[in-house]
Design goal:
Layout: H1 2-23, E1 34-42, E2 45-53, E3 58-62, E4 67-71, E5 74-78, E6 81-88, E7 91-100, E8 103-110, E9 113-121, E10 130-136, E11 139-146, E12 153-159, H2 179-189, E13 193-197, H3 217-232, E14 237-245, H4 247-257, E15 263-267, H5 274-282, H6 288-302, H7 315-318, H8 323-330, H9 334-338, E16 344-350, H10 358-367, E17 372-376, H11 390-395, H12 408-418
Parallel strand pairs: 12-13, 12-14, 14-15, 15-16, 16-17
Antiparallel strand pairs: 1-2, 1-9, 2-3, 3-4, 5-6, 6-7, 7-8, 8-9, 10-11, 11-13
């Protein structure tokens, strides 16, 4: 009896301790756990990022800066609040957020700056393509193949635009719109297989370029040629075609010169040399002294020489590590190069494009008179119907729910299948 009483006392003491610990326990909302994505609103523009939250740890990814699954130093939850601490190369980062209406309203703090950040639950994109690896210089290039609804079929290589624009048409700077993903999937449904890819140094192919200063425009062209030659050798395809968007237009037309592609389609492709297009864009954004400096820099780069002294305001455009790429690009005049393309050519230009103008399409047409030219009313640079006002137009750059311009897919499909 005494033994039983002693055991009961121990049980009561343990129960009391447990109750005391529970009383002081910090609760966390289980909704926090999982992957979240959002955009940091910095003075230099939006910066997409992703966090994965776990009970005692987590990771941060910022694709534009090459940061993937970087571990937190610490994460704390208090009911509907979360505090994250991260140390990257001696720099302290703090993310403080509150769960509200199924999203995390937060601030991102680094180097004394505090920026707004809204995180929403990450939506896994269904994989609708096969992954294929193609040998190129320094390794293998990973490409996404959408097989057509029928086989054998034509196949189109889709080449994305400049900077950190991925195979889906999304940019770490501008946001997610899925324009090229929609184009690839739409064509596959219409009986045209498609191949698209992240350029070397980006996304799936980040490992192919470790140093920015090693990048040249001609490497991009060589990669496209390798893909095209692989497709041309494959009996699964009845014909091979090229679709180049923005900077991808120049890559595509140069690759078309070196292969037997049946057709080349330029969408929002520049018709003038890069220095002319770039200065047109910069003149409305820079002070006169910086416009003059940018003009001199471009003139020097066009002569094949690098520039050592760059004003801080122009570093993002003309930093030393990007100058070899610019030098290799400035030697090309798109309209003159298009004249050398033997394939059938279709030129498509949106009338509400903020980056490439109708004058560029007209210049390309001058370079190859027999090319077909289509102006699509209201289409902008990310291939969506968009308003003329700048804010409304730019809003479509980060709206993957907005469909492609209604005339785009039928025009591309008809040209590939019928040659007109």
């Amino acid at each position: 009896m005494k033994k039983l009483l002693w055991l009961c006392c121990i049980w009561l003491l343990l129960g009391a301790c447990t109750q005391k610990e529970t009383k002081g326990e910090v609760h966390m909302n289980e909704q926090f756990l999982g992957k979240w994505e959002g955009t940091i609103e910095t003075p230099n523009g939006p910066l997409p990022m992703m966090v994965e939250l776990q009970k005692d740890s987590g990771t941060l990814s910022v694709p534009a800066q090459g940061l993937a699954n970087f571990p937190f130093q610490r994460v704390d939850y208090i009911d509907d609040q979360v505090n994250i601490s991260i140390q990257i190369n001696g720099a302290a980062i703090a993310i403080k957020g509150k769960l509200k209406n199924d999203q995390i309203e937060a601030t991102f703090q680094q180097n004394g700056g505090i920026f707004p950040l809204v995180l929403t639950a990450y939506q896994e994109q269904p994989i609708t393509y096969e992954t294929v690896r193609i040998p190129v210089q320094n390794g293998d290039l990973t490409v996404a193949l959408h097989k057509a609804s029928t086989a054998p079929s034509p196949v189109a290589l889709i080449i994305a635009g400049s900077g950190p624009t991925d195979k889906d048409g999304n940019s770490a700077l501008a946001g997610k719109n899925n324009s090229l993903k929609m184009l690839a999937e739409g064509l596959a449904e219409k009986g045209i297989a498609t191949v698209r890819y992240d350029k070397r140094g980006l996304g799936d192919n980040q490992a192919l370029l470790t140093k920015e200063e090693d990048s040249t425009f001609d490497q991009y062209v060589d990669d496209a040629v390798q893909i095209l030659q692989t497709l041309l050798a494959d009996q699964a395809y009845t014909s091979v075609h090229i679709i180049g968007h923005s900077e991808g237009s120049l890559i595509g037309l140069l690759a078309a010169q070196k292969t037997d592609a049946a057709s080349f389609i330029s969408i929002a492709g520049a018709g003038r040399p890069l220095d002319e297009v770039l200065m047109e864009q910069l003149q409305g954004q820079l002070a006169p002294n910086l416009v003059n400096e940018a003009t001199d820099i471009l003139a020097t780069l066009k002569q094949g020489e690098q520039v050592k002294t760059i004003s801080p305001e122009l570093q993002a455009i003309f930093r030393p590590s990007v100058q070899p790429f610019l030098i290799s690009l400035l030697k090309y005049h798109p309209a003159a190069e298009l004249a050398k393309v033997k394939s059938h050519v279709l030129l498509i230009q949106g009338t509400n494009d903020l980056q490439v103008k109708e004058a560029d399409a007209a210049a390309l047409k001058e370079g190859k008179q027999e090319a077909q030219l289509l102006y699509m009313e209201g289409m902008n640079h990310v291939l969506k119907a968009a308003p003329t006002n700048r804010a409304g137009n730019l809003a479509t750059y980060a709206d993957p729910s907005r469909p492609l311009h209604e005339e785009l897919l039928p025009a591309v499909q008809q040209f590939i299948l019928n040659g007109k």
